[in-house]
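Crash report, auto-generated. Payload:
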Amino acid sequence: MLTVALFAPLLGALPLALNSRWSAAQARWIAVVASGASLLALALAWLTFDPAGPLFQHIDEVEWVPSLGMAYRVGVDGIALAVATMSAVLFVAAVVYPFDTGGDARQYYAWLLFLHGVSLGVFLALDLLMFYVCFDLTLVGMYFLIGRWGHGDPQLAAFKFFLYTFAGSLALLLGIIGLYLALETPTFDMRAIIEQQPLAGRGTYASLVFLAMMVGLAVKTPLVPVHTWLPQAHVDAPGPASAILAGVLLKMGTYGMIRLPLAMLGETFSRFALPVAVLALVAILYGALVALGQTNLKRRIAYTSINHMGYTVLGIAVAASLIGGHDEARRLALTGATVEMVAHGLITGSLFLISGSLWQRTGDYAMARYGGLARRAPQLTALTVLAAFASLGMPGLAGFVAEFQVFTGTFAVYPWLAVLGVLGIVITAALFLDLLWRLFFGRLPEHLAHFPDLNRIEIGVLGVLALGVVAIGVAPHFLLEVVEASASLLSGGR
Amino acid sequence: MPVADLTPELALLIGAVMIVLGAAFLPHARQGWLAGAALVTLTIALGAVVVQWPAAPSLTFSGVWILDAPASLAKLVILGSGALAMAMSPDWMRSDPRHGEYYALCLFALLGAVVMAAAGDSMELLLGVLLSSAASYPLVAYHRGFAPALEAGMKYFLIGALANALLCVGVVMLFGLVGDTDYRVLAAFLAQSDSLVLSVAVGCVILGLAFKLAAFPAHAWMPDVAQAAPAPVAAMLSVAPKVGAALALARLVALLPGEQGLWLVALVSAVTMTLGNLAALRQVDVRRLLGWSSVSQSGYALMAVAVIGRAEGAVSALLVFLVAYALANLAAFAVVTHLRGRTDLADYRGLARAQPLAAVVLIVAVLSLVGIPPLVGFFGKFLLFEATLAADHAWLAVVAALNTLVSLYYYLRVAAAMLFAPHQGEVSTLGRASWLAMLAGFVLLLAASLGVEGLFQEMSLWRAAPAG
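Recovered output after restart:
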């Protein structure tokens, strides 16, 4: 099933890239089918996932480079399954969402499908090297999407994005090799490495490997102070690509933190848990404060991503801390971090899709040039308000479930960090209310007098994403059950 | 005399002589046939290499000639790169009425590189370096009426003459000190004595090989050759002699006792890759850019040489990296050749629309040079990093990682120019043969990426039996 989920989009991308006869509409249909098949396969995997079973399930394995111990290995635990399914939903949304491809529809959809396939590869891989391969390939896909279909100064943004995150990748690669060299029998099988915990009690060497990995993943997440690539990449990327960037690519950093340092270097991570948690707190506060100061719509949403990913990293750091007697709190924090990933993907994904729609209509992101849209475009207003309230952590919506769990877990382990972190939520609330006020209330500027409301497809896509946000907020059980099983194995089982 | 051990080399030699004779007697209009003759020769030589593939390392011809798997693999790469260059050549040389000797010179240059890869004796090494150099100088300057080509040839010759003279001095000094040219005797002697003269002699030999590798401090010819030599020659000279010289250097460094030699190579490696990358950053000429990138790639290759004997995977890392580099570089130059040597970066703007296949090949080639997985270049770099980390040379791996990052800048500039810029103007291409050569380079690159396991299988057999 996972193999189908991974290869359906890649197989769809191939004919799109090669065949030049299809029209834009046909290309879009093929992309929707390939993307949808992948989502369907993941949904099936979810239904047959047994929360009481072993950590990794649905395993497929094919030899690739056995002399290095590398193989095509896929499998999921609850965390991977949740994040991968969210990613697939977001990819289908991005494919379906209307976008002006500038005459190159085939290539656009081919790149999007390629990105879909390799992104799932990151989340589904059970092989360390395959993880890295997919991790790097996502950069290539995103580079071409931003560079070709972006606006503003897309080539610079794409280049900066590639350079920064590739730097992170290389640090990650050095860390992976360091870990690999410490193994008794060389293998990249994640299950074997998690079982062996090869670097437990290895002092400086373990710290260096851990630092190399964390630097690599922190760039991708992004944590302050290595976040500076994010705003520009977001502002200049096309709307759907922005949604993917925020919703899927950023998760690779935090997902990687759970999969690699937390699971494989647990003992080392526990020594660094406090510094990482402090960094996460800085990201939370800094991201929120800088977002408040932005006048560009997309930049503001981009900085809230830094803030939200801070919550996730805080949860992961708490889960890694080995301060005795807090097993329950650590499990809660890890669950919260995962739910935050899913929630942020859906919420910020919709916010970026919405800003893409605004760009297609007006070609402008400056919030000062908007206002009073509530009366002209009620449906746009309703969906944006819902997403914004979810993002600021309104109870009953997905963001609240996640943040509540993260902060409850943190409070038990690092109480004063939790107290300071809650300030972040206050600032986020302020900045989203300000955003809504500027876009939708006040006086309608003259050039927006004929602003069209969302069309049916846009409403459909955003509606489905909003439904997911509400479902997680009201009845989170279906998600928590799957995630908690793995979270307790990872945080308590050590 | 076990003559059969030399079948590939003899085939090259005989083929080259026949081509010289043919060039003397064939009318100008038919000299293109000699490209076919060169290709046939190379095919025979390649077949002979495959047939004689050694199961265990052995020495032949009183110990001067090494037959082992690394040498055979290096021969395959050298001859294969020669074959691709030959396939690009007839279209390229069509405008030159007298180009029969060109093919003979190419074969001699390849023969020199093969000799370097298999040398187990310092005189043999000298022979290989000199043969390959002497045959390459006229090749670079083959466009006699093209001033930049003459300049490049002159530069190549001057640097080469100096480096080869130093190599000569080094080999003679070694002979004078040791009383033998055989590597085994040399190793035994080096293990006991530790004189300054000996260090100077070894330093001279390393410098001579650095010239063939286009490594610091004898690298300055590479960008000029890449820019002005006939494009097929640039493709060949940026690959074949480097493979031979890298393996020769690895064999030589493996003899040295102590750390000094290794540290010297590690420093040369770090300086070479940094210099090559920094110089490539500002290039606006694609061929020159590829030349500087080739300098930096030599620096990466030297990483493996610097940890030889200290990390068990060093030799296989070196060879996998060289194979990856050779394929990617050949594919890139094949594109340049197919586009009639189009060289200004501005002329590459929007090429993805006009010549999609050429653009794809070039993009895949540069991505492989960066080391983006799952292309074969990634596996080469991966093994290099692994070997250097295993030998506790983490600093070198970090320097290489930083350099890879820098290199991304100029490689992506080429890709971005082709993809993102609008297209204007006509794109003229060379011909069917160069198109086929480009496609063959591309297919080989992809096949190596997918079939990388086969390469590793071969390598894992050697770990039991180290080279040299």
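Post-recovery validation: Residues 3-464 of chain B form one domain.
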